[in-house]
Structure formats: structure tokens, C-alpha cells
């Protein structure tokens, strides 16, 4: 990452693990505190955030990791060469913080860099991999974010970068403690081609910033083939980079599109929904980047939408594919496009998003032939019996059950804890507890909070259509229609 005066983290569903022996199939999720606190982070702030993640129900939605990013250590190692926590920020040490986070049913993550220094110029782990990995394990760390600053020029080809990051992977595995390994090398030397065997995720771009599509010279590349990843990369810039190689992600090893900027004020509500929806469909870590204790109702109702999170956590491990991209009307930044994203799900359903990055609301359509193009054109699909496009499909709107502001504020203000509100969650359209009922089970049970609202049925060879707002998205779950298409259509 490029350090720009702030850093710290909490993250969700991911593990550094040796995936051969400790497979972890779902995405990391949690909350990144760097935007709000920068280097002004301490034990109290971490623990307050962890408590709110529990109170607000994020833990039970799957946001598990509370990750301490840069600026946590002293400026020098100990006489024995060990990393030492800043005693002013962490008077009882790191292990005491980790223990309290574990007591809340959460997991704890930390940060270092595959260089001489971290991005904020604290001691990093290049040349100290085994010692530092054991220190992290002794402290009870469950997750390591491993950055790329001050790397002594040890990059420029895939072998150099692989070797540098693999040393920490081997050191973590040697400790015997499952520690999720999150590489943060900004897409340098194409990690999506080689990181799957030694990391659980890898950053595929320079750092995100809180803009939907504004270009910035500090993020100069518009494709994945990039020698200067930079920072201040917009949501649309990152989507454009990941589209050609999204399929490189797989269970236990994922493309990391960087943290979520939802709630930080730079994007509209529609832009934030689009951002969250596509990060979920692309199986990116869902890492909240806003101030959890001061979260607004509108931010909460986006980040706590279980129907979208269920897409992220689907066990098929198949990131979305951009089926087509078309020109749209351009905005004040000269940007504008429309696109169709499709993702196959483990239960035979599909997730479909129509993204309107143009400057005005637009009617958008995708035919079933568009949606199921891969079934017709790969693996002899056209000769393997009826194609999915020849069936009718039920359409479920994944944003139609979005929590209202009154309910969200009641939870955020402590008038109703999420745990109390969850007492009737089995029949709720907005609340879900994945700790009690995993997402896969909830889908099989047809829980409304996960399926969304059934809005229509599409006939064989038909078309999915929606009016999509400016810089917005229409997101659906498609489920194969059972029974007679004609008779149910007539009833509707």
C-alpha cells in the first residue's frame, strides 16, 4: 500500500492458512479503521470497534476479523531482534488485546511488510520472517496483512516477488497456528498467476479511494498490466482492472480489490450500493473502511444486507464474470459505461448485476442468452442437453428488503441490540444470524432475508430488464422456475 498518513484495520472472513491442510473457502470480512484513525490507534479504539461489531450484528453476519494495521510498534526492535508494541498505545501488550477480541467471538489480525520498513516507516519483516511469524503466533494473531513498502527493489519479475512473500508464508505455517495470509503487493508482478499456492488473498491493484469513478494521476493505470499501481484508484478503475482476471480467484485464495469505502462520504447511496454489490460478486474481501461506532443508518443498511453478503459467502467459489461492457452517457469526469456481471452459485442459482456507470438513469436489459453465454460456449454446453436459457427463471431483487432507517437507527443507538432484534430473525426479511444458521443452510431454507423479494418471472429465452439509477446497480438472484411457466404467468 502507499501510506498516506492513515492506516489501521479490521477484517472479515479470511485465514492465512496452508490451504492444503486448513482450507478456508469464504471471504475475509471486517473493518479497516485507517481512514478514521490513521496512526492514532490504540487498544481502546480496537476494543471499542470490536464491541460495536458484536452489538451491531456484524460478527454474526460473518465480519470476523479485527485487524491492527500500521503504526502499532516501536520504532526499533528489541535487543533480541523482536518486534515490540508501543507501550503507550498498548499498555498491556498485543496479546491482551487479542485475548479480549477472541473472548468476543472475533478474530484478530496484524500488519507488517515484506520490506525493511512498513509504509509508515516502522520496522518490517524482510529478513525477520521466522522470528516475526512466531511473535505473531505467540500473541494469538489469526490474520496477517503483509504489505510491499521499502522492499529493497526485490520485485520486477514473478519469481522475485514470489520468493519474498513465500518466505513469510512458510514461516507462518511453521508456527503451527492457522493464520490467514493476506498479501498486499498491489498487483505487482501479477500475483493472480502464482499466489494461490501460498496466500489466501492478494491485492490486485493500487489503493482504493472514496470515489466512484474520478480519475486521478496518482493511479495512472487503467488495466491490470501495470508497473506503477499507485493509489487513489476509484471503484470503476479497480473493476476495470479485475474484470479480465477475476476467475483467478478460487476457494481459499482470492483477488483482493481493497477495502470498502462505503460510509466515508465520497460516494452517493447508489454508488455505495454498487460498490458493495460488486465487491461481493467478485469474491473480494469485504473489509469495512468506515468508523464503526459512528456509522449512519444508510451505511449500516448497505453493509448489513444479508442477501448480498450471502452472494459473497457462497461456497461455489466462482467470482463474477463481466459478460459485456457498453458505452454509456459520460459524466463530469468523462466516464460512463454499462455492464452485465454474472456469477454462478452453488445451489444452481445465479447472481446477476446490471451496472449503470453512466450519467443518467437508464433502462437496461440482459437476455437469458447473455446471462448464460458461458453455458452455451464452453465445455460443449450446447451439446449437453437444454441450455439454462431455455428455462424460465424467477427473479429476486437483492436490495428490495434493505433495512429501513428507523430499524437501523434503533440498533445503532442501542435502543435495540442486534441480538435482541434477532429473536424473530427466522422470519425476518432484513436480519440474519449466520453464526446460528450458515448462509448455505439459510438459502436451502428459503430465508427471505437471503433471497430478497421475488419481483418477476422471466420466460424461456426471455430478458431481464430494470431501470438502473445513475452510478447505480440492479442486483438479482435468479432461481430456475419450477412448474408451468404459462399458468403462473397468467395468475400474476
Q: Mind explaining what this structure looks like?
A:
The chain has 492 residues and is an alpha/beta fold. It is 27% helix and 17% strand. The chain has 17 helices and 16 strands. It has helices spanning 34-37, 43-55, 58-61, 94-103, 129-139, 158-175, 235-242, 269-281, 297-303, 306-312, 368-371, 373-377, 405-412, 418-421, 439-444, 448-451, 485-491, and strands at residues 29-31, 65-67, 107-113, 143-147, 180-183, 201-203, 254-256, 286-288, 321-327, 337-344, 350-356, 362-367, 393-397, 453-458, 463-468, 472-480. An 8-stranded parallel sheet has the order 7-6-5-4-3-2-1-8. Strands 9-10-11-16-13-14 form a 6-stranded antiparallel sheet, covered by helices on one side. It has a two-stranded antiparallel ribbon with strand order 12-15. The longest helix has 18 residues, at 158-175. The chain is globular and about 75 Å long. The protein starts with 28 loop residues before the first strand and ends with a helix. The relative contact order is 0.12. The model is unreliable at 1-25 (pLDDT under 50).
Amino acid at each position: 500500500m502507499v501510506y498516506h498518513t492513515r492506516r489501521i484495520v479490521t477484517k472479515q472472513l479470511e485465514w492465512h492458512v496452508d490451504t492444503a491442510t486448513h482450507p478456508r473457502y469464504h471471504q475475509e470480512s471486517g473493518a479497516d479503521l485507517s481512514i478514521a484513525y490513521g496512526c492514532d490507534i490504540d487498544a481502546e479504539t480496537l476494543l471499542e470497534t470490536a464491541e460495536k461489531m458484536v452489538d451491531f450484528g456484524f460478527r454474526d453476519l460473518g465480519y470476523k476479523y479485527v485487524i491492527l494495521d500500521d503504526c502499532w510498534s516501536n520504532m526499533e526492535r528489541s535487543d533480541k531482534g523482536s518486534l515490540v508494541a508501543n507501550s503507550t498505545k498498548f499498555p498491556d501488550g498485543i496479546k491482551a488485546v487479542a485475548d479480549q477480541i477472541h473472548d468476543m467471538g472475533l478474530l484478530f489480525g496484524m500488519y507488517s511488510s515484506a520490506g525493511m520498513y512498513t509504509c509508515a516507516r516502522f520496522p518490517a519483516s524482510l529478513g525477520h520472517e521466522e522470528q516475526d511469524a512466531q511473535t505473531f503466533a505467540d500473541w494469538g494473531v489469526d490474520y496477517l496483512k503483509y504489505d510491499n513498502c521499502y522492499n529493497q527493489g526485490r520485485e520486477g519479475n514473478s519469481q522475485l516477488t514470489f520468493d519474498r512473500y513465500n518466505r513469510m508464508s512458510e514461516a507462518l505455517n511453521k508456527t503451527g497456528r492457522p493464520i490467514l495470509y493476506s498479501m498486499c503487493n498491489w498487483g505487482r508482478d501479477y500475483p493472480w498467476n502464482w499466489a494461490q499456492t501460498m496466500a489466501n488473498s492478494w491485492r490486485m491493484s493500487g489503493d482504493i479511494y472514496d470515489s466512484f469513478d474520478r480519475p486521478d494521476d496518482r493511479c495512472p493505470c487503467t488495466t491490470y498490466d501495470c508497473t506503477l499501481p499507485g493509489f487513489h484508484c476509484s471503484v470503476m478503475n479497480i473493476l476495470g482492472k479485475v474484470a479480465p482476471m477475476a476467475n483467478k480467484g478460487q476457494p481459499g485464495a482470492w483477488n483482493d480489490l481493497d477495502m470498502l469505502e462505503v460510509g466515508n462520504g465520497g460516494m452517493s447511496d447508489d454508488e455505495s450500493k454498487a460498490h458493495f454489490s460488486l465487491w461481493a460478486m467478485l469474491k473480494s474481501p469485504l473489509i469495512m473502511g468506515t468508523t464503526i461506532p459512528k456509522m449512519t443508518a444508510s451505511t449500516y443498511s448497505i453493509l448489513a444486507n444479508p442477501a448480498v453478503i450471502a452472494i459473497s459467502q457462497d461456497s461455489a467459489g466462482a467470482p463474477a464474470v463481466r459478460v459485456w461492457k457498453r458505452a454509456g452517457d459520460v459524466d463530469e469526469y468523462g466516464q460512463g459505461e454499462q455492464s452485465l456481471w454474472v456469477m454462478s452459485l452453488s445451489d444452481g442459482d445465479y447472481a446477476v448485476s446490471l451496472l449503470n456507470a453512466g450519467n443518467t438513469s437508464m433502462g437496461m436489459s440482459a437476455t437469458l442468452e447473455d446471462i448464460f453465454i458461458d453455458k452455451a460456449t464452453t465445455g460443449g454446453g450446447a451439446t449437453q442437453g437444454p441450455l439454462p436459457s431455455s428455462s424460465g427463471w424467477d427473479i429476486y431483487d437483492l436490495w428490495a428488503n434493505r433495512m429501513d432507517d428507523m430499524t437501523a437507527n434503533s440498533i445503532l443507538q442501542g435502543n435495540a441490540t442486534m441480538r435482541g432484534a434477532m429473536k424473530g430473525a427466522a422470519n425476518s426479511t432484513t436480519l440474519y444470524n449466520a453464526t446460528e444458521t450458515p448462509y448455505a443452510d439459510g438459502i436451502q431454507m428459503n430465508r427471505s432475508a437471503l433471497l430478497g423479494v421475488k419481483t418477476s418471472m422471466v420466460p424461456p429465452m426471455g430478458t431481464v430488464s430494470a431501470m438502473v439509477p445513475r452510478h447505480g446497480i440492479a442486483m438479482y438472484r435468479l432461481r430456475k422456475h419450477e412448474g408451468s411457466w404459462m399458468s403462473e404467468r397468467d395468475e400474476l
